[in-house]
Amino acid sequence: MNRFFCFLIISLLFVSGKNAFGRIPEGNLNRLKVLEDSLRKIGPKVFQGRDETKKLANQKFIQFMEEALNVEGAFEYPFDSLKFMACLTAPDKSFRIFNWNLPHDDGTHQYFGYVMNLDPKTKKPRVWTLTDRSDEIRNPEQATLTCEKWYGALYYKIIQTSYKRKKYYTLLGWDGNTSATWKKLIEVIAFAKDGTPSFGANIFERGKKTTRRVIFEFRAELIMKLNYEEENKQIVFDHLAPETPSAEGMYQFYTQTFSYDAFLFKKGKWILKEDIDARNPSDKKRDGKYIPPVGDQNLPQPR
Question: What is the DSSP string of 44-96?
Fold first, then answer.
């Protein structure tokens, strides 16, 4: 009897593993593996050396990435060896985000990425290039943005919620910003009827103020908590404040106060709740699968 169940479990594992790539033609699967290996070797060079060296490596990385994403079967392929970047899949598997940062010598960062979803009519994958225009966006918490004009960040979590049959996809991200301050943000991605992505939704309520995204800015190297609690359906984050009252508005002096606030999803809105009890053991868990990069516990470490 024990041998039978052991054989059954092994057989099921084999079948499930096979089905993970069952829809990818063998030739395409082999091509994707070769391209992933090239990406894995080039990727770390995007984070090493001077700006010119990193930019050249990034250009080559983009070429391989675009080639890989246009191979039939890329939508199902995991790309799970690329630990230095985000390869995120929506909980309902309706879209994916591939996303990484290019650090500059002056401490700033530039962000690159792709959104991949299925065309509503043809059901074939489409790839949308994200172009970082953060420096050009005025009043970014209120802006409705597109793939061509994107507030660049390195995403590490996709949260799916719903209200009255409408799905909401909320993203958590990190921005290295400058050598003096870092940022974290809560973003929304939505899709038009033809599948075109857009960013920002007027669903974040903080008292009388409603915004399309939430951006936190604080001193560089600070490990700011910004996690999603699945069991409580809330986004929990550190309450930030200046180290002294005289530093109000000088974000290089903003730090944790060791109290926590949260956004709770209610009736299609993220509603701010201040000073929550965040002593739940699950708070210690990290979002996603990532190993921390230099300075942040929620993001992937270049290897």
Answer: GGGGSSSHHHHHHHHHHHHHHHHHHHTSTTTTT---TT-TTSEEEE-TTSSEE
